[in-house]
Amino acid sequence: MSRALTRRAWLRLAALGAVGAGARPTAARAQGHLANLAPEEPIAATVLRLSGGRPVKDGAALIRIEMPLIAEDGASVPIAVDVQSPMTPESHVKAIYILAEKNPRPLNVKVSLTPAAGQASVATNLRLADSGAVRVLAEMSDGTFLTAARDVRVTVAGCAA
Fold this sequence. Notes:
Helices cover 18% and strands 35% of the residues. It has 161 residues and is an alpha+beta fold. The protein is elongated and about 75 Å long.
């Protein structure tokens, strides 16, 4: 026996759908941890938040950053990062963060690693708002942080500030 959908039943369903549509997560909640960032958080505040206030040491001897000196298009700038580490359970890279100093939200990439990765390297494309330094922050298993930076000149901005 098939029941036809009456006008009254259809209106009830439409009202329930409208109420359910209002219960969607807000845009800030849907972004997860990005919602905790200020719209234009400075790079120093981002590094302080990521490091938890622990000292950040110069890691230029251990961190290799490969990216073009001049980026024709800021919407897609290739970058490859390699951190020299034995990647053993006692001594390994826990995370690699890539930050762009001129972006409104500096944190572009976070990669979590384990000793099973074998090597601490990542390659991706960045979106850069303007010319400036791209900073790599490496969190080591002993709690120390290493940093290195590379300047890049962007001819056409990839994101609006």
